[in-house]
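Subject: two folds for Thursday's group meeting

Dear M.,

Sorry for the delay on this. The cluster queue was jammed most of the week, so I only got both jobs back this morning. I'm pasting them in the order they finished. Each block is the input sequence followed by the predicted structure tokens. Could you check whether the formatting survives your parser before we put anything on slides? The first protein is the one we discussed after the seminar.
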Amino acid sequence: MSKQITMEKFEGFEYIEGGVCAPQGFKANGLYCGIKDPHAAADGNESPISQVKNDLCLVTSDTMCTAAAVFTQNKVKGAPVTVSQKNLAATGGKAQAFILNSKNANTCNADGEQKAYRMCELVAQRMNIKAEEVLVAQTGVIGQIFPIEPVERKIDELFAGLAYDKNLEAATAIMTTDTVKKEVAVEFELEGKKCRVGAMGKGSGMIHPNMATTLNVVTTDCAISSQMLKKALSENVKTTYNCLSVDGDQSTNDTCAVMANGLAGNAEITAEGEAFEKFRQALYIVMMNITKMLAKDGEGATKLLECRVSGAKDLDTAITIAKSVICSPLFKCAMFGADANWGRVLCAIGYADAEFDIDKVDVKLASKAGEVHVCENGAGVEFSEETAKKVLLEDEIQIIVSVGDGQGKATAYGCDLTYDYVKINGDYRS
């Protein structure tokens, strides 16, 4: 299975290279500092595997940014989530840097906030800005004391290595059980000015709405007010990350932050209108593609699943139905086995907390190998099992559901459930 997703084309938007470094004025860097084995790293005895796996990264802007973020809704929140929330509140939605690490989530620790804030201080001292103008995110094992010493030892090297083309080093540093890096960027025009939005993300397991991803950094050189940035982010989170589920477990550290430095030179977006809609669409394209990357790289996954619901009475109803299908363990297992057991789709639709007429439900299963119609008006129809098997053996599957003649439509993203998921999570701490 290829972990690369099929990227949908959108008129007026062009995919470009560079991830978080694609927009003007953003630098990044990533390196290995030894968070998981700080004593070995301090002695210079890190293993060959550790040497090639970055665990600390930094993204900075040449100028101050408007910023907005969304975080986990888990009642147990990681220390970096609390610190970043406080920092954004203190600055009124401003940030100029974002420091992140893997290997340790810094969650459920008595000194967690102190150490997360210390990371902000280390960056701020080298940039001559306030610690509150730095965001922080961490991912990894929960409940283990976070060693701040490796970060303190390596912060000068991390800062000195910042460059406008180090997006790969940064994207690699936030990977945990991820098997591939996740980054995307798009370019578009506003009032004759070229604007860009770039992003990197990580997540493979412990992914479930709401805020359904672990760490995400989005950068843009578009000029936009903090209020409108928050609006664009919240609207897009609802139809992207919050429509993603790998395993039904919601992380304690989920973070998605957007920083906008305005260096593209467009007139600042301060209200709804054509410019806002163009920016919102660009942000959607980036976030949607990262969402699909996260789903396809789910722990042990062999297939990306997309449940596309239409005909619902409203958006919320469509989202609820689509997520119900994607979250069904039985359905996910059927997709692993390429079994067109459409009854599991109907079962999952039936227990969705939404109002619709089950007698109007149609279901099709599709992929690049073709399409099979398996259910019409809430009842099964004859189909070729051989054709269905070919369709479901592909690594990107669409479950196309119609529930009536309403205007509501939405897509939820997930993956199949395999033997390897259990293997990975049986010894995650090791």
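Second protein, same layout:
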Amino acid sequence: MKTILIVDDDLHIGNMVEEVLTKEGYRALRAYSGTEAVLLLSQKKPDLVLLDLMLPGLSGEEVLQKIKGIPVIVVSAKVDVDDKVDLLLGGAADYITKPFHTKELLARIAVQLRKEQESGKYSVLTFEEIRMETDTHRVTVDETELKLTRTEYAVLKILLMNPTQVITKSALLDRIMQETPDCTETSLKMHVSNLRKKLKEGKDKDYIEAVWGIGFKLKSQ
């Protein structure tokens, strides 16, 4: 489940956006000032930020300068072209003008999340309650941190990067070879089994499905 931070002091707009995001399967975080946003970002790393500009405390422009490694869509009533250009050059991934249609907002969010994942720079991978921070190698299930071996981490990363696909055993071995050159087809079964047990300890659900004779895939509940 992708997490999106809404930074907006307008309660009506923030509530509306949160409701729309929740219905689409996103997890929404809220910040009502620039200062609160910076504090929250020091504690959590959402997958995307929706950032208003006219904020109490730090302005949206000041907050934008402090966000690194997370795509930011500026959501503002400012319509001046120079403002948009400055913000895009200053690090914003996109800009949408208020008032906006929720379908357009959702489309822009989907585009940015897809770009991040396809670029290989995506630092957070998620599937339901599983969350992997690839820069720190931290893996949590429903906020419970797991201790994974190097091979277990590599296997899970490949599965999270391809959440709807069946990954064959041979493809899995080929793709994790650089990180775990000692893994064989025989030992792979053991590593996947151990990974499934650890994920189940975080939340009593079986997240990995074995596709007989082919390989493995993530299992939607």
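Two things I noticed about the second structure. The first strand starts at residue 3 and ends at 7. Helices lie at 11-23, 34-43, 60-66, 81-89, 102-119, 150-161, 169-176, 185-202.

Cheers,
T.
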